[in-house]
Amino acid sequence: MSTCEDYTFVCPECSQSITVNASMREALVENGCVICGAPVTQSAFDPGCDE
Ligand SMILES: [Zn+2]
Predict the structure, then answer these.
(1) From ligand 1's centre to the CA of 7, what distance in Å?
(2) Which residues surround ligand 1, an ion (CB under 5 A)?
(3) Would you say which domain of life the source belongs to (predicted)?
């Protein structure tokens, strides 16, 4: 069974893929990609569960 607590983030700009939790996701949306600084939207995150 998968958990809904983690998300896979794939940057639309630099294609960096990292696993983040909910609070990290919010920080990325607010601050942009940690690697390249590109703006990040909710759609860049793939939830770890199907909903
Ligand atoms: Zn990036």
Answers:
(1) 16
(2) 11, 13-14, 33, 35-36, 38
(3) Archaea
